[in-house]
Each structure stands twice: as C-alpha cells, then as structure tokens.
Amino acid sequence: MTTLENHHRLIIVGSGPAGLTAAIYAARAELAPLVIEGLAAGGQLMQTTEIENYPGFPNGLQGPELMINFRDQAERFGAKFLTDDVSEVDLTATPKVIRVHNTTYTADAVIVSTGATARTIGLESEAQLMGHGVSTCATCDGYFFRDKELIVVGGGDSAMEEATFLTKFATKVTIVHRRDTYRASKIMLERARANEKVEFIEWAAVTEVLDDGTGAVTGVTITDTRDGSTRRVDAGGLFVAIGHDPNTKLFLGQLDTDENGYLATDSPSTRTNLDGVFACGDVQDHTYRQAITAAGSGCAAALDAERWLAAIGDVDPAIEANHDDVAQSVAG
Length: 332
Hints:
By secondary structure, the protein is an alpha/beta fold. Helix content is 27%, strand content 26%. The protein has 8 helices and 19 strands. α1 runs parallel beside α2 and α1 (17-28) packs parallel to α7. The chain starts with 6 loop residues before the first strand and ends with a helix.
C-alpha cells in the first residue's frame, strides 16, 4: 500500500445506482473507496418521482429517497464521498490519475459509472414538468399513466418500442415525428403501425408542454415543421424518446467505446481495455437502462475490481516512487 496523500486503492467516478452499489460492495471488501459523485449526485433517479419496480419496496418510493438510501449504506461501510465533478483523467498512467480542478487524486483501480443523459427537446415547460407528466423512460413510468392519452416524441426504434409498450396502459399513444421518414427499423415501425392504439403525427414538433396550473400535463402544442402552423393536442403525458448520450467525454481516447459511443467492456465482465479500469451502469449499457440492472453491474464492477486488486497485491515500490511524477505531470 502506498502512503501518498490523495491516493486510494479504488476510486469510483459517478454516483447513480451503479456507482453506489459498487461503493457498497467495495467498502464491505475493505477497499475504502473514494466516490467522486459529481455535483449532480445520484444520477437520473434524482429526477424521478415514484419508483414502483425496484425490488424490496412493495409500496414504492421516491427516486431521491432510494439514492439517499444507497449512499447512506455505502457510507456506513466506509466509503468516502467527494461532491464535485472530475475535470481530467489519465487512466493509462500507473497509478491512475484523476483530477478535480486543482486537486490530483491517484488510484490503483478505477470504476467508471458516469451514466448516460437522456436527450430532451429543450423546452422550459418540458424541464419544469419532468417527472410530473413528462418522462424519458416508458418502462420506468408507463404504469403511472393508465387510461390516459399519451404523446411519444421520436422516430427511431426507441420511440416505436416505447409507444408500443405504453399501449399496455394508455387508451391512445400518438407518435410525433418531424418528418415522414423514420430511423426506426422496418419491423419496429410496422409493429407500431399495426397497433390499433398507436397514431402518428408527421411533419410536426412538440414546441410546448401544457399543464393546468397544478403541475399535471394536459396536452402539448404541435408546430408543423413545414409551414409553422400550430395546434393543441390533448394528452395526459409526454414521453421523449430521442435517445441517450453516454457520459464518456472524459474518457474518449483512453477507453474504447462501442458503435453507439458507450464504453466497451469485456463481457460478461466489466473490464475495459485498460487494466484496472472497470465500467458499469448506463455508461456501458444502452440496452436495459434500469436502476436494477445498473445496480447489478455496479456489484459486478466492484467484484471485478476487488479480484484485480487482490491479484496485483501491494503496489510495487517503483510505482509508488512514480506517484509524485504522475501527479506533477497532470498538475502542470
């Protein structure tokens, strides 16, 4: 073990379900992880109101409450937290280098759990009603929209899949798309068109989300993308399905990504292309994107990191002597 100040056996970057689960497992393994949780600590669930599909909570709970429980549990076992954003990394170095503004941290192993960000339309009304009738996840929130008419924005496979899924609960689902051609695969588009509950509005964009003054969505304003004319469409909820962006900017050029831009891991493990660096949660999962699957991959990442650290044993004295040089090179 090294004695360098700000050096840790394990640093976890990110604090959603994946990162915090990794912290719980790593802390219980006595790795004393440092979690750099970011200024937007807790991930996407901090913007989620009611969660009813997370096992163990039959009556449901609020997203922020679940994340606070995760964090408290990790802290109980000895995880340390830094509420700030990472500004620079060098994961190719030995030890790994992580910089938070003017402070440099080093680690023998790193778990990346920075998540993904759902793309939004960019409307002020959309942001105000997010989690209160506006959603970016039909699987997460569809149950709350029983017997309502819903709007889905998008033209890719995600939009078709979400619209089809929502017909289990809604009386009608209208897909709004800016054009009359779609990025969606033929089979997904045909499946949506064949569903009697699904309707399409083409050459249109949602330009305002409407509410009744009580914070409940009552409809949207649709603007024709050809002539600019507008009209109101009544609806009890809006689902934005225009994709996600993995939060990988910090790691580009160091960690490999797949064709969708997500961090590539050596499945079924969470290993990346760099020794001692592991990735979990939505930053490497563009298929499921659920709290429970993120938590599961966080558990896997902690176990992978623990085994890797056990295999390398204590840090070599030559590596320890190199700590100062690494820190100074990044700081400079």
